[in-house]
């Protein structure tokens, strides 16, 4: 009988801002300005980081009427509306209301951490790899029995369970190791920060024990 538990450290979530060009360099890798604790933006799993959309606001300088704040599940696609008061945190931290209107803002559910686009023609202040995923946590279980038949013959029966507790395992939003790039783009409203797939599906390689739901298998080995 054996139990195998996998609890590696969380991996970084890199950014790919392919939809915006705030710096004017056309490199499409601009970082934004971040204020607060990066842990507030880490480990959202299958849901994106809360987002405030300013595209329907007529004039931010006069108010935030028309703003919409929400969180989207990348797994189901469903939206959860959030208090528009979160938008006030975005306005307070914004260095350029024009880029805020164009790119929106990400704000933690507790309102204490905010990520806003940088001033037009500049680079953002956030550091590299400050956000982390939920890490790969998995428990496998196996039971085996050996049988001996005379001196030369033996057999082993095995019963194995992968992801014993059937807990959801969400892939890294960036997926640098598998090229998935699921929720690494802040210029894609609603999806940024969420994995949206299990590691095996994101990698296009659904092997047993690589992140799927609970899987059981039986095996018999004969030795002679």
Main attributes of the structure:
single chain, mainly beta, six-stranded antiparallel β-sheet, four-stranded antiparallel β-sheet, 224 residues
Q: Any overview of this molecule?
A:
The chain is mainly beta and 224 residues long. It has three helices and ten strands. A six-stranded antiparallel sheet has the order 2-7-6-3-4-5. The protein has a four-stranded antiparallel sheet with strand order 1-8-9-10, with no helix packed on it. A hairpin with a 6-residue loop joins β6 (105-107) and β7. It is elongated and about 90 Å long. The model has no long low-confidence stretch (mean pLDDT 82).
Topology:
Blueprint: E1 2-6, E2 33-35, E3 51-53, E4 68-72, E5 79-82, H1 86-93, H2 97-103, E6 105-107, E7 114-116, E8 138-149, E9 153-162, H3 199-202, E10 215-223
Antiparallel strand pairs: 1-8, 2-7, 3-4, 3-6, 4-5, 6-7, 8-9, 9-10
